[in-house]
Amino acid sequence: MAKMKHYLIVCSLLIFFGESFGQGGITVSTGTDVTVETGTTLDIGSGNLLLKDDLSTSPSFLEKGSLTFSGGGQAYVEQYLSQDSWHIVSPSVSNEVNGAYMWMYMYNYTEATNTWTVMNQPTTQPLNAGQGYFIWSYSTDPNGTFPASPDSVVLNGLLNKADVGLALSNTDASPKSGWNLLGNPYPCAIDWNSNWASTNVGPTVYLYDDAGTGNYQTWNWNSGLGTNGKTNGNIAAGQGFWVRAADTTGVATSLTVPQGERLHSSQAFLKNSWDNLLRLQTIGENGSDETLICFSEEASTGFDTGLDAWHIMGNDDAPSLYSVLGNDSYAVNFLPSIEEMQAVPVSFMALQEGSYTI
After folding, report:
1. Which structural domain range is residue 67 located in?
2. pTM
3. Which of 12, 82, 101, 219 has its CA 20 to 30 A from that of 321?
4. Which CA distances in Å does 74 have to 22, 50, 52, 69?
5. How many domains does the chain have?
6. 3 state DSSP class of 260
7. Of 24, 53, 73, which marks where a domain is finished?
8. Mean pLDDT over each residue of the chain, to the nearest integer
9. pLDDT value at 13 more than 80
């Protein structure tokens, strides 16, 4: 693995480094962390700022102070999207539109009706800070109409740096009541933890890992437990994710994405441990899945918002493994005691023929 590079801007200055983007300017290469500290200004006197992405490691730009362009330049954020895969994305800049994802299929989600809407036309639809969007990038257009998707897109606009307040949707009549598709609005990672101001929102975040397990990773900041390799609350720059409103009685729900929880992903993360924890994993040729069963006096036999996590189906090729209570499927299932729950049903599903291990 290449050595990570870190740049800390500690005073007001005119600075040039890295490769040029256009005439002059700054290119922040992959695997590079840049911090503009509070009370300082990074002024780009000529050209633009480009945050350069690739398939492995994105750059990280943490703007606590000010970014200015005295030479009339602009900020650009590249987003690498591998072909023939689903991606959940969120814009790291303001003032961008869906036309940035030309030759890709883009969808937004409506909780109230549990519907997906194609956003390809018109190409002037604004992309909202803090909202998540599903993207299908393809090598061959499934409808046989358009050229192959590019390897990456470039978003242009002001880099998001302030708190982002979101009014979440929670509709009792919806088949997927309370599920909201959100996203990290910053060009750096953010930590999902108890410092996010929220009303009636569960502490579990759900991130789609198409290139890895083919399933969803979960992380609960209250229990400190994650599934499918998730070991902290870090959400990557531009990454979309799901949360679920904990209340389904029509009470308003809200969530604020706090700029104070921005970080470079190499920083320390939350950890926790539990006794009486069983972790099961299934592995196949096309992916893997994981489920956790834990016994604690804090738990009940129903869904515990502060501890449990729902199981969400991943892609069709990946296997699914989850515990079952009634009609509910759990990725993380906290139960009150072994004596009370001596048998816990676990379900395995695989739509592709092959060999699987648990």
Report:
1. 1-73
2. 0.87
3. 82
4. 11, 9, 14, 7
5. 3
6. helix
7. 73
8. 88
9. no
